[in-house]
């Protein structure tokens, strides 16, 4: 579904990603983990068209998408739940969700997807009239995930969904990611939280200093002493 081939990302003289190659197959949850500044978010931003790669190719559903405007990628089934949530704080929960589904072709589809989001997050239905900015951090993250799902994506990219959240909320995020398997969704999870990622992912890419250092299943990575000590101890 997604193929990243020899991706190079630069910010002026700074090399953020150095020949990154990875793939995500339909129905998978694939994780990218690594320390802060490893290049994880640069990968996500390149995939969704926020950053233009210096070199390499990105293919989604078999087509190169380098240079494709972000709003076209959304319509083709690619969704990003960004780090920092990016909610409309002065709008209600439901209004935020409707903004996430603005590109959908029909009102009926919006209603279907909103019902699905409320099934995943019953709390959001209870607070659908509440201003998003008045919610707790964990509740706001649930809204951000629901907005991503409202785009009716084939592939959903989550950029640091656990950042700054309490352990019980992180557990809820993990349960939501697992529930997304039943919705025939494919997920690329970008995280510093190695424990969360190794719990939900089918495969994990370990990134550091702009390079992929390791790639394997969580079970095999957990048996690698070097990976365990440097990356999976958090």
Index terms:
alpha/beta, Rossmann fold, 2 domains, 10 helices, 6-stranded mixed beta sheet, 234 residues
Structural features, described:
Helix content is 37%, strand content 26%. The chain has 234 residues and is an alpha/beta fold. A 6-stranded mixed β-sheet has the order 6-7-8-3-9-10, sandwiched between helices. Helix 3 runs parallel beside helix 6 (137-150).
- Count of separate DSSP helical elements: 10
Major sheet description: 6 strands, mixed
Identify the strand order in the major beta sheet: 6-7-8-3-9-10
Domain module count: 2
Percentage beta strand = 25-35%
Structural class: alpha/beta
N-to-C span:
30 Å
How many strands in all? Answer: 10
Summarize the structure.
With 234 residues, the chain is an alpha/beta fold.
SSE layout and pairing:
Blueprint lengths: L1 E10 L2 E11 L4 E5 L6 H8 L7 E6 L2 E2 L5 H7 L1 E4 L11 H8 L6 H14 L1 H5 L10 H14 L4 E5 L7 H14 L5 E6 L2 H7 L2 E6 L2 E6 L1 H4 L3 H6 L4
Parallel strand pairs: 3-8, 3-9, 6-7, 7-8
Antiparallel strand pairs: 1-2, 1-4, 4-5, 9-10
């Amino acid at each position: 579904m997604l193929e990243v081939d020899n991706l190079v990302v630069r910010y002026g003289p700074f090399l953020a990603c150095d020949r990154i190659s990875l793939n995500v197959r339909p129905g998978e949850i694939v994780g990218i983990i690594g320390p802060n500044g490893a290049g994880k978010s640069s990968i996500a931003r390149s995939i969704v068209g926020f950053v233009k790669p210096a070199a390499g190719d990105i293919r989604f559903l078999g087509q190169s998408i380098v240079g494709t405007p972000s709003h076209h990628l959304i319509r083709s089934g690619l969704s990003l739940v960004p780090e920092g949530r990016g909610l409309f704080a002065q709008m209600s929960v439901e209004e935020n969700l409707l903004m996430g589904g603005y590109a959908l072709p029909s009102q009926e589809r919006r209603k279907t997807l909103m019902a699905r989001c409320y099934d995943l997050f019953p709390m959001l239905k209870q607070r659908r009239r509440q201003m998003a900015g008045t919610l707790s951090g964990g509740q706001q993250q649930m809204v951000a995930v629901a907005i991503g799902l409202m785009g009716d994506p084939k592939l959903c990219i989550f950029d640091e969904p656990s950042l700054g959240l309490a352990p019980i909320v992180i557990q809820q995020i993990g349960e939501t990611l697992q529930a997304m398997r039943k919705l025939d969704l494919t997920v690329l999870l970008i995280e510093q939280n190695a424990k969360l990622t190794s719990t939900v992912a089918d495969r994990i890419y370990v990134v550091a200093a702009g390079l992929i250092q390791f790639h394997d299943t969580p079970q095999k990575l957990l048996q690698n002493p070097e990976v365990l000590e440097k990356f999976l101890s958090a």
